[in-house]
Specification:
With 594 residues, this protein is α/β, with parallel strands linked by helices. It is built from 17 helices and 17 strands.
């Protein structure tokens, strides 16, 4: 058994999230975490809402509320959506907790003490109309290196080079389109060049990473420059140094504090369990494994900035240094980045109405239908396109007619002919062949899940479903009513195949997995679900907020568990809901109206 940290990207709390977000960080991380628990590993899955930075201020101003009130509202919306999707977080928290503030400030002080936070003069962008600082990511223009029109103020996604907003040709604010004004200001910079050698050595040892992620990360080494870690803004975590902490207009960069959330969430989780030091098993142990899940636009922060922060805290850069109270913090085992999910050929854009919100999707369709689609057709290694026609087709042809039909007809024949799981008699070659197929599936599907190859994994699991359907077609149990022994053997074999396929599909389809378990007469929890708890801030009793957490100890084993003859099987009900052809036009009309 290994300790596995599932570090899941923090959704930004300036509005509800769309299905493109959960395609990148949500479903892939939950599939992986559920599988790893089933395989016997000790998983800690953490995340929360990212609540600092200029975009929160901009949206709060639009809505006429305070930044904290805006963050409170959307934190709750996002918590409800992700829990409804079945994402099995051990803790989903937020970055405005006092615990998070304390952890971030400890990280900054130690990195600074070790010499890796350097004070520099810089030219920062501000909005001429509001006087407010513009974050680099909210400035776009032409890349001065490759000429790409659409480069951001922090990097160019076309050539991968790190940029400063002032370097862009014809820079424009993404917030209101105005040309930013650049003014001189003093900030702390993370001395990335001091980690260049250590980062290159670390990246060169990474195995099994998706090639695009590793290549992109290695290319960043060539243009490594100090990166500003403070901002001229009044919404965020104070800079914990004399002369800075008292300044209401200087705050830590939102991306400095957001990635530290993985650590602070782990510490909060430990404190809430009653063992405040429990988090160290995932962070200080060199044998523990950590996987970071996100969309491709966040690779830089997870394969360069966050590792550099960890190295700076531990004193592993060129300037040396000593670890702080958190000890030696382990670097990521793997950065698992997905590409973009588009909709009908366009990138998601809330402002342009090109968006499918998670909560709207879940209000009309089963969560497993969305989870299945994002697993089998999502943006795993290349951009993918969501269409309502494909969503309807996959739901009806693959979930309803394929998997759901196998479950229902198997259970219905058992209920009608025996009322319970029958005994299996002598096996014929056709029976043994199906058993061999399902037995091999655990190794094949498990290996693919461990490698984050979810599309191939769910394809293999559905191949087991197809083989089981083919088995029923070949053995024709409906013609065996006069041969009770053979009928019992066939239906027992089919039911075992259903149970095995259900275990393989449980990481992808946890809601259906529970239903299938019960359909075959199972009792108790088969696929543990998250819950929402209302909690007090650990360090400020005047504040409360919702968290996602759960008890996942009842998770099933990643293995074939023999069915018990005599287990009662009731008349089944459909596991999945068939979608009417009309939903395609209805959803397209909704999008056009938006």
């Amino acid at each position: 058994m290994s300790r596995i940290l599932s570090a899941v990207a923090w959704p930004y709390a300036n509005g509800p999230r769309h299905i493109g977000h959960v395609a990148g960080f949500g479903v892939p991380s939950d599939v992986f975490s559920r599988y790893m628990r089933m395989a016997g590993h000790d998983v800690l899955m953490v995340s929360g809402t990212d609540e600092h930075g200029t975009p929160i201020l901009v949206q709060a101003e639009k809505e006429g509320v305070s930044p904290q009130a805006l963050a409170d509202r959307y934190n709750r919306v996002i918590v409800e959506d992700l829990a409804q999707l079945g994402l099995s977080y051990d803790l989903f928290t937020r970055t405005t907790t006092r615990n998070h503030y304390a952890v971030v400030q400890e990280m900054f002080r130690t990195v600074h003490k070790n010499g890796y936070m350097v004070e520099q003069q810089t030219m920062g962008a501000i909005s001429p109309s509001t006087g407010r600082t513009l974050p680099d990511r909210y400035i776009e223009g032409t890349c001065p290196i490759c000429g790409y029109d659409g480069a951001r103020g922090d990097q160019c996604d076309n050539c991968g080079n790190q940029l400063d907003a002032i370097d862009l040709i014809n820079p424009k604010s993404r917030i209101n389109g105005e040309t930013p004004k650049f003014v001189e200001s003093t900030h702390f910079f993370l001395d990335l060049p001091a980690f260049a050698q250590a980062l290159e050595q670390w990246l060169s040892t990474r195995q099994g990473w998706r090639p695009n992620v590793l290549n992109f990360s290695l290319n960043l080494i060539d243009d490594m420059r100090p990166r500003a870690m403070t901002r001229d803004i009044d919404w965020g975590i104070p800079v914990p140094l004399p002369g800075w902490q008292e300044n209401p207009n200087k705050r830590l960069y939102v991306w400095f504090d957001a990635v530290i959330g993985y650590l602070s969430a782990s510490i909060e989780w430990a404190r809430r369990t009653g063992d405040p030091e429990a988090w160290r098993g995932w962070w200080n142990d060199p044998e523990a494994l950590s996987y970071y899940f996100m969309g491709k636009d966040n690779i830089t922060f997870h394969s360069q900035i966050w590792p550099a922060e960890l190295m700076g805290y531990d004193g592993r850069g060129s300037k040396g240094g000593e670890p702080g109270v958190y000890g030696n913090l382990q670097l990521p085992t793997e950065v698992v980045s997905s590409e973009y999910l588009n909709v009908a050929g366009e990138q998601f854009s809330t402002s342009r109405g090109v968006v499918i919100l998670v909560r709207d999707m879940l209000s009309r369709y089963q969560p497993d239908a969305l989870r299945y689609y994002l697993s089998v057709a999502g943006p795993e290694t290349q951009d993918a396109d969501f269409t309502w026609a494909d969503f309807k087709r996959r739901t009806n042809d693959e979930l309803v007619a394929g998997w759901g039909n196998l479950v229902n007809r198997t259970a219905n024949m058992i209920h009608t002919n025996f009322g319970a799981i029958p005994e299996a008699g002598a096996l014929q070659p056709v029976d043994e062949a199906l058993r061999a197929t399902t037995a091999a599936g655990f190794g094949t599907v498990g290996k693919l899940l461990g490698e984050h190859r979810n599309r191939a994994a769910i394809g293999e699991a559905m191949r087991v479903v197809q083989e089981a359907n083919r088995y029923l077609s070949e053995t024709e149990p409906w013609k065996l009513k006069t041969d009770r022994e053979r009928l019992g053997t066939v239906l027992h074999t089919a039911a075992q195949a259903v149970a095995d396929a259900n275990t393989m599909l449980a990481p992808f389809l946890p809601f259906a997995a529970q239903k299938v378990h019960e359909t075959l007469g199972g009792s108790g929890t088969f696929a543990p679900m998250p819950r929402i708890d209302e909690v007090e801030d650990l360090d400020d009793a005047s504040r409360s907020y919702p968290i996602i957490t759960g008890d996942y100890s009842a998770t099933p084993r990643w293995a074939s568990v023999p069915l018990v003859p005599g287990t009662s099987v009731d008349k089944p009900v459909p596991v999945f809901t068939k979608l009417d052809d009309a939903i395609v036009e209805e959803e397209i009309a909704r999008a056009e109206q938006a």
